[in-house]
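Can you give me the bound-state structure? Components:
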Amino acid sequence: MKKNRVRYYTDPVHGIISFPWELLQLVIDHPYLQRLRRITQCGLSHFVFPGANHTRFHHTLGVAHIAWRVIQVMQEKGFSISKDEAEATCLAALLHDIGHGPYSHALEQKIIPFHHEEISLAIAQRMNQELSGALDMAISILKKEHPKKFLSQLIASQLDVDRLDYLTRDSFYTGIEEGRVGIDRLIRTFSVHENKLVTEEKAIQTVEKFLVARHHMYWQVYIHKAVLSIQQMLIMLVERIKTNCRNQNDVIMPSSLRSLITNAENSSVQNLLDSYLALDDVTIMQVIKDNLGHPDYILSYLCNCLLDRKIFGLEWISIEKNDYTFAQKLRNINLSLGDQNDEILFLIRTGTEKSTSYVLDNEIEILTNHGDIIPLSEASHVFFKEESLSKSFICYPRHKR
Amino acid sequence: MKKNRVRYYTDPVHGIISFPWELLQLVIDHPYLQRLRRITQCGLSHFVFPGANHTRFHHTLGVAHIAWRVIQVMQEKGFSISKDEAEATCLAALLHDIGHGPYSHALEQKIIPFHHEEISLAIAQRMNQELSGALDMAISILKKEHPKKFLSQLIASQLDVDRLDYLTRDSFYTGIEEGRVGIDRLIRTFSVHENKLVTEEKAIQTVEKFLVARHHMYWQVYIHKAVLSIQQMLIMLVERIKTNCRNQNDVIMPSSLRSLITNAENSSVQNLLDSYLALDDVTIMQVIKDNLGHPDYILSYLCNCLLDRKIFGLEWISIEKNDYTFAQKLRNINLSLGDQNDEILFLIRTGTEKSTSYVLDNEIEILTNHGDIIPLSEASHVFFKEESLSKSFICYPRHKR
Amino acid sequence: MKKNRVRYYTDPVHGIISFPWELLQLVIDHPYLQRLRRITQCGLSHFVFPGANHTRFHHTLGVAHIAWRVIQVMQEKGFSISKDEAEATCLAALLHDIGHGPYSHALEQKIIPFHHEEISLAIAQRMNQELSGALDMAISILKKEHPKKFLSQLIASQLDVDRLDYLTRDSFYTGIEEGRVGIDRLIRTFSVHENKLVTEEKAIQTVEKFLVARHHMYWQVYIHKAVLSIQQMLIMLVERIKTNCRNQNDVIMPSSLRSLITNAENSSVQNLLDSYLALDDVTIMQVIKDNLGHPDYILSYLCNCLLDRKIFGLEWISIEKNDYTFAQKLRNINLSLGDQNDEILFLIRTGTEKSTSYVLDNEIEILTNHGDIIPLSEASHVFFKEESLSKSFICYPRHKR
Amino acid sequence: MKKNRVRYYTDPVHGIISFPWELLQLVIDHPYLQRLRRITQCGLSHFVFPGANHTRFHHTLGVAHIAWRVIQVMQEKGFSISKDEAEATCLAALLHDIGHGPYSHALEQKIIPFHHEEISLAIAQRMNQELSGALDMAISILKKEHPKKFLSQLIASQLDVDRLDYLTRDSFYTGIEEGRVGIDRLIRTFSVHENKLVTEEKAIQTVEKFLVARHHMYWQVYIHKAVLSIQQMLIMLVERIKTNCRNQNDVIMPSSLRSLITNAENSSVQNLLDSYLALDDVTIMQVIKDNLGHPDYILSYLCNCLLDRKIFGLEWISIEKNDYTFAQKLRNINLSLGDQNDEILFLIRTGTEKSTSYVLDNEIEILTNHGDIIPLSEASHVFFKEESLSKSFICYPRHKR
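Here's the bound-state model for the whole set.
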């Protein structure tokens, strides 16, 4: 009676999730993956969207679930995907984000100077050693080295299971309906052509909608002014901790974080991994709570603002007028905060954000009803034209201490 | 152009939430309420339901939102509720859970020996001082001292806005559909009769469904075996920390928690409040992470299990057979863990849980189409008969160290 | 490139529906099944629930879809169901309601004296002749003669795919949320034990919820007072047409309906089939529109009321007080309508309705975690106790001519 | 106890709908409005989307509901809208589609040569006479003659309550998710500026999404190939009935339709109204069923195809290649149908369809955070650029008789 042993995950987004492989269960239960339960998918965006407390762990399950559904549809359509390849693809889905650190993208490359994908690979490889090579094929898919190229594209391309999950999930938890994607239809219309992942023509509107949804989630959530501002505050926090450390001012923090801050610059990913795997959202919030009264008043100001959700102001500025606006802003901030100390300048930042748009050098490919392949930019006369938009901002404190 | 200043909260559960009072905004933004952002609504239930990371803060907003909608409907129906009373009721809704501590109910009365409602009142009163008495009426509603008794019943009774929100919200985030409640219909059918909150007869099935939903959420979520087990683990953790403290074994923990553990027994709520307000989920997770290598191997075992989601086993046992089962279980656990140390007994617990059922001494009252009032138990011939069910369990470790 | 030929049905209830068999497509496209597009699932209930215009055709697709999903899950669990058996079960699902007539249950046995299941079987058999026996196995499943008894139970039992679809669908289209059922969980927890369909213990609450949902849909939709009243009006209409025919008063109507009304009493199902297959909701509405000015003022009154949604009054009465209430009611109706003609009595009806409750002689069976089978009434201590409730009513006109 | 008298409509799309005015109830219950229950919102689109059986009546309720919600929000924002104006606007919403005929747009101007809006106005005026002028203000809003221009814009403009309802409703019932619109946010961000309806800047993405949704509903539903084909078939049916009438060949049909077909050309709307108000979907389906065996084999062929859902083929053709394609197609059709009769040419049609896009001469206006008004085309750099797309098609029979 093994039948009952299958684990079911109840997901409000996708319904019931389950996988037919014991190895997947082992990987899900591994402390490295469980760590993702303590890392929110959208950082501190829940300051703006109170429902957005969902985790990287949950996203990861969702990505593997969609991958598994696509593979089943492909198999039904007659494409050859072996049982091992199916399992490896789902494993790759589980591992693709395992390298994320505290608050996901918000602090990416700020604590240690590596991109999360590089770290994911390092962690996956360490795990693979523990598991005596059971993850070999999954890793080859992650590294785009597997001969069935379309499996790698399923995990990472302009129309992949990662994006399908995060748009749907972030939309669900933020309550921003514009992010919804017609997942069911997309899942059923993936196909393979000359070893490449393609989408059947009948889903062309659903693909267009997917691109629009992505665009809208950027402007409404990912680069929402308050969300960007919180992200800047977190970055300032980390920088200020580093500055204090360099200046021999003690900051209360867990040893893992201290070790990374001290050694990150000159180390390889591998050497940092032990400390890195101890990091999560709790680490940062602990630092915030423990240094509310730190003698560096800039640090303590940041900690207090982050704890009590006193979000810095952020305004879009046009780059041309930058200097003037900046100076004027500065003056106003000083006046309103009544703070004559030059240190306050540390808390005023400018920067540029852009929505990552559809790129033309590696297009989504459409399989027409006649069996031809055409790039999306040709198939769709309407929406793919979206240009990459970038906007500059100034971010500054607005609460008195 | 003040119009645009109204704050909108985007809630995936209720849609857009907003209130027409500045004082509410002030209270929502207060650090005491913001603290609830760091306290999950369902403790560590997300170990079982990966979507259940929603917070007390979000629930609190939802409760106030439903309260506001009910009041608007009542006003439309012609019942006299002044602007101030409306505001105070929404404030009471915001404050009703402000006293919750880490992991909400899971550790209630375990860290300090007070019920969360008593603490809520103490915090509300302190806030009221800060606000020069602006919360007077809200507090009178919380204390059931306001002459319009039905306002207090709206906040706390067998069919109140608290339950409407938590069933709906917990159902939404766990993905357990059985917990859904016909909120829209209930909101529109609340009425007042002789100063008491009543429900119009036409919503009788929706009330029945509400009780069934509550029943099902108990059995599927709130006293799910793994959820109970995690709760026992958290309780053991706190007890073990206390034991170590008593025995002069240092445990790494924030000073606020240390202060509470040392002083809670003989203090008043008021004296503990400063330390208590520094507690949240982060506090406990920080202790877990900081004591993974604690010399007390029972404590370190608990920390490791809680960090890596190694959930203890839990089985329902019938009370009569208790002794025998207990002894046998004990023997098996010892064998499987290979642990001869008597200390292991600390980790084996029995207990009893019951679903809180509908009680007959303070019934939901139904306003019939003819204008009479009858208790629900009479109006509904079907579902109110649910008996209070209690079940005993044994909980025990099952992962080797 | 046959891949693209699979037909997708976009169902707002279940998502995308498709089947892997050409024969199913042939049956779906057959005029007998297409006829169900012109028969509403819930009769004229859309007079009360304006969204409830969904059809028997749509329901039929949904039943086959759920059957197919259950079979796939069972196959994954290792139960032996051949490709032919799977196809035949889905065909049986498609055919199970093919015998429904105008407004589904509302006029059942009123136009011809046969139950819809008997007619379904006759139509299926005629279709089977056309298809040279391709439906043999499907018919054996419908007739409960197939050796795999559980396949027949899947189509018709106390927890079958028919009920799963109609509760979910009727709930969706009426907007009565109480009828929602946890279909996904139920689909995944069906199992087979000694050739019987059983449900795994872990879905016990979902089964309870299913029974509660059914109960609530009865009271809120299926025997809603206005819905019952409309049903009585339709029955009166058919009776009045018959009376006029017997009295040689011409009624304008299609020849198929005339032929049935004249010949139904003494004929076999087979002989009536040709005429019967020409009936649908349009037939009745056509009669209503064509006889608005009929010389029999009772008939014309009914036609006008049904066209313009002038719903008769309906009140629950207690049987004991029946005579008195009836007489009094009668008097009031006469007064209010100002109608002295005795014919008006034709329009006043009493009757009894009962909610079909869970029956104990053919129980839903639960497969416990230990592999035992116990009846639901034992597994669930709470909800199965629902008694069959019956209620008497009086129905009467309330609009002046 | 009048409180309970308020009528609630349970709408699966918007939740509970109710209005505080008796006059609205009177209008809803009027036979002219009840007629819309027998007219499907999307014609025979349910041949393609089996869930799309929703009616004009239901849509009309929804439009009035959204109008009422917008007005309430505007009143809360401080804009002056009197009780009478609120009621009149909701009445205008109820009346705006009252002139629709069988299958809504599918046969518009085919039976009588008037646009549905002109007919709506004529019906509203007749109703107004019955109601002694109670609809005066509502009619002035419909005719855009009311001084508060923004009320007329709310009912009919590029971002009006009509579109908000039909996109949402058609999306819901077809199951095409791309059509969903963020109604809640739009309702809360309507504003008024210099007597014109404007939208607050914070909803800019939701407006963009609304335009994209409209675009997608065109391509996925409204001009779906099979939907267009069915529409062509209905048009051919009506034309063929007319031809037969002209040729003195009797066609079985209700007298109202016969009267319109005979007299429509030279009459005013007013003179045709009595007959027109007797038309609905049933009328056409009745003609289809009654003429299945008509001696004109083209007419009988159309009737049979429409009854049994034998949809004609439809292909997009490029206009340049039109002649050649047409001739070739013709040849193939003749060969495949084996039909040498020239009459078959009647059944082959070409035509052009275009998606109605955003137009620049009457723009949606955006109220910026600084209080300025800018047209959407300026506020949104991305999506408004959609060009009007038109496509040519050829439509032809493909089922043998």
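A couple of observations. The interface with chain B takes residues 177-178, 180, 182, 205-206, 208-209, 212, 215-216, 219-220, 381-383, 385-387, 389 of chain C (CB under 8 Å). Chain C is about 50% helix and 10% strand.
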